[in-house]
Design a protein that fits this description.
Elements (H helix, E strand, L loop, with lengths): L10 H10 L4 H7 L2 H5 L3 E3 L5 E3 L9 E2 H10 L6 E4 L1 H22 L5 E6 L6 H12 L4 E4 L2 H10 L8 E3 L5 H12 L4 E5 L3 H13 L5 E4 L24 H13 L6 E5 L9 H20 L6 E3 L23 H19 L5 E4 L2 H5 L3 E11 L7 H8 L6 H11 L6 H20 L5 H22 L10 H4 L2 E5 L3 H4 L1 H5 L6 E3 L9 E6 L8 E2 L2 E3 L2 E3 L2 E3 L17 E4 L6 H4 L10 E7 L5 E7 L4 H7 L4 H17 L5 H16 L6
Parallel strand pairs: 4-22, 5-6, 5-12, 6-7, 7-8, 8-9, 9-10, 10-11, 11-12, 14-16
Antiparallel strand pairs: 1-2, 2-3, 4-13, 13-14, 13-21, 15-21, 16-17, 16-20, 18-19, 22-23
Helix pairs in contact: 5-6, 5-12, 8-9, 11-12, 14-17, 15-16, 15-17, 16-17, 23-24
């Protein structure tokens, strides 16, 4: 195998750049590709901090670093979810504007309604904001369970015209509640997922002397794409086949229920990244709609389900963390397909619904966290360790070979010297395992190897030879975050979803380190080692050194804040209690009339007492038990009275405190 030629980088040139401070906030914006994934909502400010622009207006900026400092001053320490209702409102308005424009340009003779699936983020303050913003936009809600149904009914109280579509499995109790809500005047539409649900609807309708409006979900042949492709197709979990739908129409006629068949529904999965899959699904659904209308079904609306994706990595590609279409293309393609098929058949254009939760809400939430420590490989071996290893009467040969390689690091054959250090470490590991090398010598060989690897990375940068392409991963720094990946970024672990992540300050400085991120759980999977890059995922993230300073932070260090973006969809809902690390603080931040940011809503995170209760521990009983144990230790004089008082304070404060490090 031939290796690609490598270009040496003159270290003095990099040093000169640092000395002249040539790195600018604009360089950081390019490095972290903020424009590509930020959709106009995020950018780097001239002062080197991360700016948030809720309505994409560059003159209305919320400085995220200032927000983080302001929250810490209010004892709302990271990790914290910062929600931006202004972004949410703008996203909703933009979806409305884009579809209205497409309707006008195409001459489409139906209406469009966007439905927010509550499952995407069920937090009450989020749902209330969507309900409030969406009412005047003709938006609605989608629910998929009994608890969500009750939440949806409560949210839409006083808004009878707001669409409420009910998906998921249903029983008699569920459908009776829907029927009664319809009699109360609610615009509620249960969607039949299984054939037997039609019998339940018929029974409830007869009992209450009403013909409720309902929909039927079709199990289409069109294949989905991406992680959720299994949601569609013949093996999909929900929906009726074409044959079952025809039998259902006969059943509805026989029971005088056909007039209630209002909606034809389908679903092809979440985060559909290829517009061709959307077109195929919409075309099949439109043809089915036409056929059922001709068969006498009075369908007025179609629901194309979810699928509208988010460009998490900014590559605008048909990959799992991106999409190869814009919102404008999505709207135009959906309406054009339906319109052209209906026009050819002479059938009225149906109203169109979509359940676009991810695209609606993802950008509006950011997770801010603090680096609490780092683990880096040394750039040079510890001299005391090296002297102790060489002080032996007869130093082992691998150690001597490693030292010789280290002395050659500034010569003409750096790669050869690195290979010698690598070979010396392999021999040292073998000898140590056999008992022929002491610990000091083994440790010295390791540190020399790390130092040689660092020298190669500094010299070659991104132009490493192909056979050393894994070296940056091997020597990447490990930055520890006061965060639980399993609570705040579950999709990063569960489905390897990429989320944009970057520092929110010091962006006027060039980041000189490359690392991966680890959380504070005791699980080795609690890490992030894939990051959005220009050509897809990259395995390390550019970071700044975290140095001691005067500002308060965990461990007495100056705070270094990072943020994960586009986390609004699913992450809060799916988060779990790994290590009993609970919900984080969440705040809603807006721009006030004076142009300054302000906190509108604060939702404090779980306390230790609360998460213990979730898993059936009784905190009060635990406190009594531990106080009894403490008293025994005091009686036996294993603790002083002052130490006992300290233990009691710690116990009481801990039960009331945040589950994360403070």
């Amino acid at each position: 195998m031939t290796t690609k030629p490598a270009v040496r980088i003159d270290p003095s040139r990099s040093a000169l750049k640092d000395q002249l401070n040539l790195w600018s906030p604009h360089d950081s914006a390019k490095l972290y590709r903020v424009e590509e994934w930020g959709a106009g909502y995020f950018g780097v400010t001239p002062r080197g901090t991360l700016g948030v622009y809720p309505d994409t207006d560059p003159t209305k900026c919320i400085d995220l670093y200032d927000v983080a400092l302001g929250l810490a001053a209010r004892d709302l320490t990271p990790p914290v979810i910062v929600r931006f209702p202004g972004i949410l409102q703008h996203r909703m308005g933009n979806i409305r504007r884009v579809f209205d424009k497409a309707i006008a340009e195409l001459g489409y003779r139906g209406k469009y309604h966007c439905l927010y699936p509550i499952k995407v983020n069920q937090e009450r303050h989020v749902c209330e904001a969507i309900r409030t913003f969406g009412y005047d936009l003709g938006f609605g809600l989608e629910v998929g369970s009994k608890p969500e149904l009750l939440a949806g009914l409560a949210l839409t109280q006083g808004m009878n015209g707001m669409p409420l579509v009910c998906n998921g499995f249903k029983d008699a109790e569920y459908l009776e509640l829907v029927t009664l809500a319809a009699k109360m005047g609610r615009n509620i539409i249960p969607v039949v997922e299984q054939a037997h649900e039609l019998n339940l609807i018929s029974r409830s309708a007869r009992a209450h002397n009403v013909v409720p409006r309902f929909g039927i979900r079709a199990k289409l042949a069109a294949a989905g794409v991406g992680r959720w492709a299994g949601s569609s197709g013949y093996r999909g979990k929900f929906g009726l086949t074409v044959g079952e739908i025809l039998h259902s129409v006969d059943h509805l006629r026989a029971n005088d229920m056909i007039s209630g068949f209002h909606l034809l529904h389908c679903h092809m999965g979440s985060q559909v990244f290829d517009i061709r899959a959307v077109k195929a699904m919409v075309s099949e659904l439109a043809h089915l709609y036409v056929a059922l209308r001709r068969a006498g079904a009075p369908i007025e609306a179609i629901d194309i389900g979810g699928g509208l994706g988010v460009d998490y990595d900014g590559t605008q590609s048909a990959t799992g963390s991106s999409i190869n279409y814009t919102l404008e293309q999505y709207a135009a393609d959906v309406l054009y397909r339906v319109q052209s098929i209906c026009d050819e058949a002479g059938v009225p254009h149906p109203n169109v619904m979509s359940e676009s939760g991810r695209a609606l809400i993802a950008h509006s939430s950011v997770v801010v966290c603090e680096v609490i420590g780092s683990r880096v490989f040394p750039g040079r071996p510890d001299q005391k360790l090296l002297d102790a290893a060489l002080a032996q009467e007869q130093p082992p040969q691998p150690l001597l070979d490693a030292v010789d390689a280290y002395h050659q690091r500034n010569g003409d054959d750096l790669l050869g010297a690195y290979a010698d250090a690598e070979h010396a470490l392999a021999e040292a590991t073998t000898l140590f395992s056999l008992g022929y090398m002491d610990l000091n010598a083994r440790a010295a060989c390791e540190e020399i190897y790390w130092a040689m690897g660092k020298a190669v990375l500094d010299a070659y940068g991104d132009e490493l030879p192909e056979d050393l392409s894994s070296l940056p991963d091997q020597l990447a720094d490990l930055y520890f975050l006061n965060l639980s990946i399993f609570q705040s970024l579950l999709d990063s672990w569960g489905i390897e979803q990429l989320f944009p992540v970057m520092p929110i300050h010091r962006l006027g400085e060039e980041p000189t380190r490359r690392g991966i991120l680890a959380d504070i759980t005791c699980d080795s999977d609690g890490k992030v080692d894939q990051f959005p890059g220009e050509w897809g995922a990259k395995t390390t993230l550019e970071l700044h050194e975290s140095e001691p300073g005067s500002e308060p932070g965990v461990g007495g260090e100056k705070p270094y804040y990072l943020a994960f973006f586009l986390t609004g969809a699913y992450q809060e809902t799916l988060g779990d209690l790994h290590n009993l690390l609970g919900d984080t603080h969440a705040v809603h931040v807006t721009v006030g009339p004076d142009g300054r940011w302000r906190i509108d809503t604060v939702v404090e995170g779980d306390t230790v007492r609360e998460v213990l209760s979730y898993v059936q521990f009784d905190p009060d009983e635990m406190r009594v038990q531990l106080r009894h144990d403490l008293e025994s230790a005091l009686q036996a004089e294993r603790l002083t009275l002052a130490e006992g008082a300290s233990f009691r304070r710690f116990l009481d404060d801990s039960l009331q405190g945040y589950t994360y490090l403070e």
